[in-house]
Design brief:
By secondary structure, the protein is an alpha+beta fold. It is 57% helix and 8% strand.
Length: 326
Amino acid sequence: MNKDITYMNNNSLKRFKVYCKNYYTAKSSADNRISTAKKLIKFLNEREKSINSVKHNSIEEFFDTEIEKGTSLVTINNYHSYLKGFFTFLKEQNDNKVMEYDKVKIERIRKMEYEVFSDSEISELFDIIDLEKNMRIKISNMILFKIMFYTGCTLSEVHSLKVYKKTSDVTDDDNYIVLETKEIYFRHPNVRKFKLYDSLCNDIINYHRIIADAIGKDDIPTGGNLFLTTYGKTKTLKMLQYNSLQYRINSIKKKSSFSNKKLSLKNIRHTLIKKLINSGKSLEFISSSIGIDISTLKFYLDNIEETESEIIDYFYGEHPYKTVIN
């Protein structure tokens, strides 16, 4: 990272923290604003973007990244409000004079216009993976796509997965797999548990066996990361980077017949959500199983405008307390 940019950005954040704690009497209100600003500053530092040159398009990029991680639209709306206050503060402090916050297109994010994979496209993706000659990459890609299509988890969730041999081995991890019971757990924002197919568990075992052979070990220690790589001459075992998984998914998509489609990583989970909605599953069921805020799911409905009109008509004309309040 650029140390000068990081220092300047963090200095602005530090002064904003002092301002929030002095201005907002409710601790939670101050903490929420500080937490949101801190997220944005981390985002900017990683991309070496100076706070004094940030414009509305960077805020939209930040929101897109958060949605990619699975952040609900309710939370995104809160971020939008908090960051408006943050940039008002920055303008007063002469830390940023170029931001026109009213240009941030939150409506585009709220619409959530997605494309999804068809069944034939999903089959094609797995056919492409199956052609990979490097067995380690082939099996790990199979695991990656199977878990994401099966559970609807985000890329950050699957990237953080740990693998335990037995339930008794499990420590305090948010996301993990237990091979003994053939189960996968996600613990944020709500606890989700899925039974895994035998083939997927076998893929994980074979993948870790290949990794263990590469470093001259009998096995990978229980509780290790799901996705691993070896580093340097000593073949030190390391967690495969998040960006590496992103690159793999994009490279596989580029080899497909539908590479020209706007098919982002988040659309993998959207494909499953759309399938569940079309199969008649309730929004409560989908919210609990996918780990997404129920208020966000209404944007997946094809008849959202019809539903909104029905709500308006009902509350005006048929509300159960109409005779009481009219």
